[in-house]
Amino acid sequence: MPRSNDPPASEEELMERARALTGRTLGAIAHELRMALPDDPVHGKGKPGELLERALGATGGSRAEHDFPDLAIELKSIPTDGKGAPRESTYVCKIQLEDADSVEWEDSWTRKKLSRVLFLPVVTPDDSAMLERIVGAPVLFVPTPEEERVLRADYEDAMGLIAMGRVEELTAHTGTWLQVRPKARDGSARTLTFGPEREAIQAMPRGFYLRPSFTAKILKEPR
User: Engineering a disulfide at 121: which of 96, 116, 131, 136 sits with its beta carbon 3.0 to 4.6 angstroms away?
Assistant: First the structure.
């Protein structure tokens, strides 16, 4: 098990570490890293991801950079059912609502985040204890030209509505693979954006998420 402060020196080393976790329980990994995992899966929702970041030597943390900055690779753990189907949408990044009319896809943090992603499934049966969940086989995702075309179209459709002051028209149904969902601890959170008359308004923070149908495709298809 690599030390948490020892980032991988290459993509090959990162993949070797990820493959070494396959089939292991979160409890066994946490024991080796001396990291406590909560019993309550609801309040400990982000802990499996933090554990796997430490196990693989990720250093990006919550900063606006990749989880593995030197490799420009993002890490995404995905809870799946026993058949390997993702249980939920996968968070990509927060949307800067005030910049919707100025950030193109090519220069966006969304595109940078999705350019190279290490997906690590975590088998999460119903009512399973967090310590008993099992890490699945890793997949390094690099979008094909067609996949990027769809992701770009989803991004541009969403950002176009925001730029026109129609942020409240965005729902989780918008987008083929990339959807917009609220991104806040509770419904009281607000951030600044613009209304249809370019007036300043307060809106709930939003983030981009990958639909389960898309991440299921990634996990199942050879890369």
Answer: 136
